[in-house]
Batch of 3 targets.
Target 1
Amino acid sequence: MKIRIATLFYCASLILAATDNCNLDSEEQGKESSNCLQDLPTVSSLESWIDQVQTEHITQDGKLANPGHTSDKNVKCRLPSPRTCSWGDCNTVSPGVGNVTLADLSVMGGLWQDGLLEGYGNVTYQDKSVLKGNFHLGCLNGLVTLQEEDGTLLVGWYHLGELSSGPVWLLYPSREGAMYTYLEERLGVNRLSRAAFTGDTVAWIYPDFKTGIVGQFVAGTMLSAREAEIMENGEENGIPKMKMSLIDANTKIYAFDPSTDMHLSSSPLQRDPYERKLLHVQTSRIPGAGVGVFTNLPVKRNTIIGYFNGIHRHRGGIFKDEDKSAYLVEGTHRNEMLDIPEEYQSWQMYQGSAGHLINHGQEGNVDYTECWHPRFGRILCIQTLTDLAPETELLVKYDVAVDGDGLKMALKTALHLGHAVSGKSKDQFAKDVRPYLKLVSDIVKTVKMGDLIRF
């Protein structure tokens, strides 16, 4: 049985027990041939470009932001009124560095000359997204990046202050994937946003940059898409272009179908195409563990290889339930837990994601990490902690979720009982049990040492 959560109650005898039995025996993982790791995938030119453009946005050195070709060098992009020079020298004829705040509260920063931005500059919007690129006579030109508050990075090409035709990318910060589209014509907009990812040939590209889902999206939300093979197809203005080929026009349709507190999936037996390539479910090598999750291919360390999609439950309500689920994990938001409803806990009933079937190992080879998925929304991804050979069983080290208030009450009751039968003064008893309380407090971070000593 997979136990991810427990309500802990300690009594005086446990607190005063010897600690030499605290170490758990590690579960042995079946040994795989190291020769298989020779086939680990290599870093592609696309991955190198992504590393470079993400680093470029952070370092602000402007090396990638090629100013591009301007057909009319006399074109000027004047700022709308009202506007305010909120810092520095923005309104002088001679060059000066400063910030200009616009009526929509966006702030433009950089080198100003005669009221126009010149050179590498930035725009910070009210939603905390930050655009960076090269300006000439106040007009954005060349490669432009826009980073959203959560770290997601959009990349496109600008000409005379407007988003130009060509490839546009959306890169997720945790490397869970990317979105790609090719604009056949200029949209007439001056702000790079998710609205660019609207159309019938938008692609979600998985972390291998070979597997994708292509179809109809609106502002980055998937409405109807099918599995596709993704291939690099050169570049345009220094931005990679991709070629997309549907695997089969009759394959199942994928759509945005996020789980809620009651709803898990509208198509519970529809597998994710990327997870299907990398993982399969079979009988675990751990005696009595039932099924487990195994790799199909060699996988590199720090690679997302699968998913844990579950219903969203509030942490506070979990400890009130009489029946505790064996499939609970910490969610992506504060006090949130992901769970698999009882009717979907077997692989025969739910195959949308395999993360809930990963068994415990004291030395885990994967971990859960927050990520975005085009079908499930904000969920947990399975990320490798080491290089893995084919047919390796995935193991994760389970954490324990604790009812902090209930635990403190139980501990204080145990301390009172322990003191009553010890025959010692309260100060001496507290001194004797302090090392054990420290051990509990270290394990359970929600419990403060001072709260326990003041019993």
Target 2
Amino acid sequence: MPRPGGPSAQGDDNDGQKAAEAEERNLKRKCIDYHAPAVLDLESRLYRKACRTAHVRDAPFLQPHSSYLPRLGLPVMGASAPCHSMAYLTYMAHVTRAKNSQPVMSLSWTPGGRRLLTGNQEGEFTLWDGINFSFELIMSAHDNSFRCMAWSHNNNYLLTSDAGGNIKYWSPSIAPVQSFDTHNGQPIHGLTFSPADTKFASCGDDATVRVWDWASRTEERVLEGHGWDVKAVAWHPRSSVICSGSKDNLVKLWDPRSGSNLSTLYGHKNTVTKVAWNDNGNWLLTASRDQLIKVYDIRAMRELCSLKGHHKEVTSIAWHPLYESVFASGGMDGTLLYWNIGSKGSEEPAARIPYAHDMAIWDMKWHPAGHILATGSNDRQTKFWSRNRPGSTAGLEIDAEADEEASEVLHDEMELGNHVGIVIGRRGATIIAMQRGTGTKMHVDQVRRVLQIEGTAKQIAAVKKRVGALLDRVSNDGGMFGGYGGGGGMSMGAGAPSGGGGHYGPAGAF
């Protein structure tokens, strides 16, 4: 008979502890369930008055308190009286990362928004649940890296393209239908459907935009006029007009019926990375590597505004599906910004998430209901962003001028353990980049293996968050960077005493 403290009893205790931990993880699993807000929206529609002004006046306005959480409905509830702050999704609901993951190059919600489909650098599809964000499926789709995916307006077919010039048709069940090669084997960066779904257009690094017949898969037009790689293409939501952006810094408007160039916009000074039509058909949004986002009124062919909020290249943009004046943008440095350009908007970002990702945000898509934004990045992660609960300020920046204590310079330390070399980076590149991005002064004490930080409370919190994410990523990679531990043998830049750490970078970088 086993003793009370014997191996059998210890094994039972371990099994019970593991079961309890698994149950706790399941209880803590995050999800964004939109069924309750949808029911609330349907219920409120039954009691709305016929007069528009009456039900706007009687609409319940949420107050910044947790007791108003049960009244939080879908964004469509406020379509008649928009509250644009509900479109700024600053709360990170979940982070997904598949095993043996690769950079996420493109993504798209399935029809109805039940699942999220991502394409990575290895040409693989990954399917994620849109409510509890769990992994569902991974399958090989292309032989080369993904570049773009686009659903038809009737949601009957999916188009995908890769870096080898291949285009594939897919059914809604993600079953392959057709495949063909084009653009002389060059990467295809953009796909877009015509309003009737009978035609679609593609663009690639062969400096052309090609118009195709959907049913016969035959090429109807080759739109030539760009002097370099064409990086983006978008078909007007209701008219026979195609917009394209290129590495020659130009944005061109085309007539797909005749193949003629209707107009050329010369607003950018570097590669145009993305173009997007607003659903109203009047506004054209363009993003570029010159760190600018421009909005054009296509009726008068004039620039409405030029938006500067990114400190690196703008790599992705997406209009909100319900609020026509709101859109989101992502940068090469992983910054996520929300903008409102309406009558009550501003040329400054409405909300900013400085370290949404550690690397470039290649693509972003809104959920059809507008309550979730999915972003895919070169850091191999897909993140889901949702609305804050009433009264919460998660992800929002605090105005330093409103609080005198926010400007007080503080000193703090952070333990690095065996990852001193990772934080320093090659010749101090990593720590210099952090100093420039956060505006702090940082010093690595290699004897004590700590990071000394000098800055405001907000800046110190940002540094700790960024360094913590870096160390977590290194730990999750299985110690592949373990050879840098201690940092004693690394080149640390001029002015740093050997073995004792030092300040990195010029004083102007602080």
Target 3
Amino acid sequence: MASTLSEWTTKSVTVLTCDGRLITGTLRGYDQLQNLILAHSHEKVYSMEGPVERVELGLFVVRGDNVAVISDCGGGDDGGDGCGGGDGDEDVRAEPIKAIYGNR
């Protein structure tokens, strides 16, 4: 995992946390416990009642024991952050992501 994370440093990543949060930002650092430092980060909050809400977080630290999945955004053609952060989110409705308890 560490060799992959070293390749992703300074790239845009999305992190799914064990408590069901979806956080996207630029990976600035990590350690052997998989603690992550994300710059220019934001959280996407899903709801059935309204569009996806984007909450700006800025510089953000995710504890390694709360990381479920890390995804490289790949810099796609979707409006900016490469992880589906474009203008199409106003039409998206979804149930909030449920917490993941498998590793606790």
